[in-house]
Amino acid sequence: MKNTPLVILLFLGLLLQTSCQKRQQNNIQTSSKTLTETKKMQSKVLDSSNFATEIGGKKVSLYWIKNENIQVAFTNYGGRLVSLLVRNKNNEFVDVVVGLGSIKDYQNSTEPYFGATIGRVGNRFAKGKFSLNGKQYSIPVNNGENALHGGTNGYQNVVWDAKKTNDQTLVFTYLSPDMEMGFPGNLNVKVTYSVMTDNEVRMEYEATTDKTTIVNLTNHAFFNLNGEGNGTILNHLAQFNAKEYTPVDKGLIPTGKIETVVGTPFDFTSPHTLGERINSKNIQLENGGGYDHNFVLSNTKVNGMIHVGSITGDLSGVVMNVYTQEPGFQFYSGNFMQGKNTFKSGAKDDYRTAFALETQHFPDAPNQANFPSIIVEPKAVYHTVSVYKFSK
């Protein structure tokens, strides 16, 4: 009986050791399962050999950055976001960014901006013209009589230099030469895409120039938070931190006015589905064929960033919160999608099956004195960060 406490202690120690070993084994199995699950998801929709080619003598590839709960694929052709896997309400991976399955598909697409890094100047400006220091510049028009997303050969067609610095970070760089697409100055551009531990995709844009120029960089990811190919986005629930917007003419050029959203279908200061008012009788919705407008952000900051708002997938439960250092964002409800392109999942890009939320300075800023300036001077550093955070 004297040895009973010792026997009990030895038994408890053995029990604890066995428990720890089982827990460690379970962790290894869970980690292995997650890795296997991820590889299956990646191979299911994307074949890296379809992205391995050369364009203009430069190597094109597919790149993945990832952690346990978020996996993102890019190609350096256009600095494009091709796939974005996050977990839904059932803890299953769902691809919330629509994209194409090969470089050839991107080159042949009737929609040139799927997932692309946009520049030198995102969005539209009137008649492709602007003035700097008393000199007028002209950009090739490619959207009716206006210039859109940098003109006829914007950054979506560039083969960027790519460097994967670790499993979570991919850096794209590009030297945009003086007078490319009519823009003055040699512009050194650096875009860093990162996945963060708290289910964030961080987009950091930097640029320097040797001449006074204009810059407005963004990313044109198209989202369906229910997953690529899972139908309409009109039942997604949205709330934006924007009390004002910039009305547009029939060419989608801002009139120069900044107007309140109160009493209009543009009021998302409280939650509404995207389709709730999209067919309302409203001249602005008629001009855009739906939502295709710049919203003016209210100055509510979280960790030094302005909170754009949130959108929730009605079927998946995926919530996307967006944060930025930009003064506005363009919300586009997929009005020009026509089912002419096939996504990597095999689904068509049907009408309003994806939306874009592009953080930005305002459209036509070079020609609107009351809009925040996009002029960048030599020796200055253009720098801005936007974050897309996912939860369920």
Automatic annotation (TrEMBL):
Keyword list, A-Z: Calcium, Carbohydrate metabolism, Isomerase
Task: Please describe the quaternary structure of this protein.
Answer: Monomer.
Concerning NCBIfam families, the annotation shows: PRK11055.1
Residues forming the catalytic site? H220, E358
Q: Which organism is it from?
A: Flavobacterium restrictum
Q: Which Pfam families match?
A: Aldose_epim
Enzyme class (EC, first level):
isomerase
Q: What cofactor does its activity depend on?
A: Ca(2+)
Q: Which GO terms describe its biological process?
A: galactose catabolic process via UDP-galactose, Leloir pathway; glucose metabolic process
* EC assignment: 5.1.3.3
User: What catalytic activity is recorded?
Assistant: alpha-D-glucose = beta-D-glucose
Q: In which pathway does it act?
A: Carbohydrate metabolism; hexose metabolism
Could you give a GO molecular-function term held by this entry?
aldose 1-epimerase activity
Per the similarity annotation, which family is this? Belongs to the aldose epimerase family.
Residues that, per the record, bind beta-D-galactose: N123, R124, D292
Query: Under what name is this protein listed?
Result: Aldose 1-epimerase
Q: Which domain of life is it from?
A: Bacteria
